[in-house]
Design brief:
mainly alpha; elongated; about 220 residues; disordered C terminus
Length: about 220
């Protein structure tokens, strides 16, 4: 007779919740540093892309803070009750990010001023590109196993930061080497589209399913 799995045991759920709390804390700490550096570098270089990247970090902090609030509860039932509110906060964060990036990209394409090269901006973009994929993957795995749509949604926002980091890095390098100031805003518009999609899915609670008998913890 085959025994059906009903998801993680209570002890495993507690371990996963602790892991998610640690990952969220690391994400918040790094994004605070990233925001300060990017906003400072953006102001010094008159770079709308860097300033937008810094504001994205601020938005990511709000998303991660929502998950931190959800998983601050020790009881599994309380965490589940907070799930929908956390998802709504994450969804609004995604949509706010998409709106800002889109408006900033259009302004840059319209020629509101040429940004100066920013070595500091290149460094923070490269560092984020190296760090964020690992934080995102670790939180996504834990979120899927525990069956938390909010943890998975927040991991997607961290992954979106990876894409933004890549776009920013390419844009800053092309601007510094070739003077191609249009490269970054064009790619940023594509990122804004992705953010809208992820925001809508988070609002509807998509992206992860609760563990059920005979199923994986979350859909891939």
């Amino acid at each position: 007779m085959t025994t059906l799995s009903l998801g993680p045991s209570p002890a495993r759920r507690d371990a996963l919740a602790r892991r998610i709390r640690l990952l969220v804390a690391a994400t918040i700490a790094y994004n605070v540093i990233e925001a300060v550096v990017a906003l400072t570098a953006g102001t010094l270089a008159s770079s709308s892309a860097l300033i937008g990247f810094g504001l994205d970090s601020v938005i990511e902090v709000s998303s991660a803070a929502a998950v931190a609030w959800q998983f601050s509860a020790r009881e599994h039932e309380v965490r589940e009750a907070r799930e929908r509110t956390a998802l709504r906060i994450i969804a609004v964060s995604f949509l706010a990010l998409a709106a800002y990036v889109a408006v900033d990209a259009v302004r840059a394409l319209a020629g509101t001023g040429d940004a100066e090269p920013s070595p500091l901006g290149i460094v923070i973009a490269a560092l984020s590109l190296a760090i964020m994929p690992f934080l995102s993957a670790a939180q996504r795995r834990a979120g899927r196993e525990i069956g938390s749509a909010s943890a998975v949604a927040d991991s997607k926002q961290t992954l979106l930061c990876t894409y933004l980091s890549a776009v920013l890095l390419v844009g800053l390098i092309l601007n510094a080497v070739f003077g191609w100031s249009w490269a970054d805003p064009v790619a940023a518009l594509a990122i804004a589209g992705i953010a809208v999609k992820e925001g809508r899915e988070a609002w509807r609670g998509k992206g992860c399913c609760a563990p059920t008998a005979g199923s994986q913890a979350c859909a891939k």
